[in-house]
Amino acid sequence: MRTPILLSFAALFAVSSAHASEAGQINISGQINIGTEGVSKGISETDGNGQIVGALTASHKAFFVGVRAKNTTGSDGTDGQTQWFAGAKGDIAGFKASLQLLYKTNNNARPGTDDDFYEWQSDISRTFDKTTVKYTAVYSPDSSGSTEEAWWHDVSVAQKLTDKWTLSGCVGIRRLSPERDYTGYNLGATYAVTKQTGLDVRYYDTDKHEYGKRFGDRVVLTLTQKF
């Protein structure tokens, strides 16, 4: 699986590097999130424990590449995940859109476990005055562990209340093979402490509590620092 993934990344990086060499500066940015729990695609990925996520991105015009790392807790012994990503973004007829390829490895999984996979992610959003509507689709032809084909679709709405406060919510649908489907949703508020620092409190839940603790409801507090 690794060869086509690495070739895809190499192609995307080559395109972005070629554009960068023509005119321009490569911008480096980073972000750190510290949360009381880690949640991905609507469910917990730290089993009630806190999570730290760090990301570093290099961008030039429409193109970007980067790496992200976070601690996780998995039934296969996983204690973290590293993500390499590359893609492009831009404005199309008043919409903001992006497409990226992510290569993910689950760290320290038990030997013999399917611990690496890739995902295609597309996002499109539009802002109407103080309201932003966003749609995200994530697809993996062969996800980690026993999961094969996997989809995640979500629609979110964010309403800017003041210069500091934003209210937002999201509904997402997960489709997996072998079948283990669920619907996840969240509702929360974000406070902009500064232009670079934000504090978010959010309630998460799914419609499949019978799947286990990870699918139950929870409230998560997250501090975000950009640099």
UniProtKB/TrEMBL annotation:
Domain of life: Bacteria
Lineage: Bacteria, Pseudomonadati, Pseudomonadota, Alphaproteobacteria, Caulobacterales
Keywords associated with the record: Signal
Protein name per the record: TorF family putative porin
InterPro entries for this protein: CHP02001, Porin_dom_sf
Signal peptide (UniProt feature, chain positions): 1-20
Keyword presence, Kinase: no
